[in-house]
């Protein structure tokens, strides 16, 4: 039992160190200017692009089904989406997953609502913009350019204040 605790501590420390290195690397990545070149799939297998939503702010939730912190943010994200449904902002949940069928099944089983897109785990969208760690929240401006690459989490009450300022 004691060995298990030491191993758990060791691997937790390694994971933290890797995450810090990833954060540093991500900060040095310059975000792509043409966000419309990325193509996603929605739950009805349609192709989706950010350009389809131009004229609106786009708040992205980038998450993974195996990420506990990601799953805890989903109800807050859904509430935020409802709060601003009359505003020129769209809330898009982008799951990082290679299996479309597993993703659809997960959404249905968990009764997760909203607009959902999927992108492969090593997609150019994630790599080129430094969005490899999840959960990640991003705000695109009305032209589809990254405005906030590290938006606050939906559970943070300060996020509503920040979003309200967009419309004042």
TrEMBL record:
Residues 11-168 form the Thioredoxin domain. GO terms for cellular component: cell envelope. Its main location: other. Residues 1-22 form the signal peptide. One of its GO terms (biological process) is cytochrome complex assembly. The keyword tRNA-binding does not apply. PANTHER family: THIOL:DISULFIDE INTERCHANGE PROTEIN DSBE. This is TlpA family protein disulfide reductase.
């Amino acid at each position: 039992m004691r060995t298990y605790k030491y191993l758990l501590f060791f691997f937790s420390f390694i994971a933290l160190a890797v995450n810090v290195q990833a954060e540093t690397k991500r900060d040095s990545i310059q975000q792509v200017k043409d966000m419309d070149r990325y193509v996603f799939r929605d739950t009805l297998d349609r192709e989706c692009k950010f350009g389809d939503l131009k004229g609106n702010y786009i708040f992205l939730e980038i998450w993974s089904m195996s990420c506990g912190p990601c799953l805890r943010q989903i109800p807050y994200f859904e509430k935020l989406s409802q709060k601003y449904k009359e505003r020129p902002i769209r809330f898009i949940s982008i799951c990082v997953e290679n299996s479309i069928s597993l993703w659809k099944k997960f959404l249905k089983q968990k009764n997760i609502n909203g607009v959902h897109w999927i992108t492969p785990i090593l997609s150019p969208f994630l790599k080129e913009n430094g969005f490899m760690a999840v959960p990640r929240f991003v705000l695109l401006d009305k032209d589809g350019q990254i405005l906030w690459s590290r938006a606050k989490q939906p559970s943070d009450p300060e996020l509503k204040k920040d979003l309200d300022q967009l419309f004042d």
